[in-house]
């Protein structure tokens, strides 16, 4: 289960033939593991973004979706190319996510954390936290 959860929060190359996998539909069960246990009222989504410059990472909300998009330059031999990565997360609420309630930060270890109130993420669904 930990690998499934970890794979959910990896950015996917846009040029990937498996573009359908860039949309991740989160249900209330999958969100349980993302709830900040210390406070219980915040949802935390963590991404390994150590390969990207912080200026190239963009987060956007659209309705009940959160999109994470990043670009990087890669060099293979003498060839330099730009690569784009993206992932869209659909929350189990019909309500739009209030962009004013979404915060993000990048830590020195290359982890991007996106936070939003649990109520925004799961409005209209029931989630019980297991001890």
Describe this entry's structure for a reader.
This protein has 3 helices and 8 strands; from the N terminus they run H-E-E-H-E-E-E-E-E-E-H. By secondary structure, the protein is mainly β. Strands 1, 2, 4, 5 and 6 form a 5-stranded mixed beta sheet that branches. The chain has a 3-stranded antiparallel beta sheet with strand order 3-8-7. A hairpin with a 2-residue loop joins strand 4 (57-62) and strand 5 (65-76). Residues 1-5 and 124-131 have low confidence and may be disordered.
Question: Quick gist of this model?
Answer:
The chain is mainly β. The chain contains three helices and eight strands; from the N terminus they run H-E-E-H-E-E-E-E-E-E-H.
Average the pLDDT over all residues and give the rounded result.
Answer: 77
Strand % is 35-45%
In this structure, how is the largest beta sheet organized? 5 strands, mixed
Total helices: the number is 3
The first-to-last residue Cα distance is: 18 Å
Identify the overall geometry.
Answer: elongated
Structural Rg: 15 Å
Alpha-beta content class: mainly beta
Q: Which short descriptors sum up this protein?
A:
131 residues; mainly beta; three-stranded antiparallel sheet; 3 helices; 13% helix; elongated; disordered N terminus; disordered C terminus
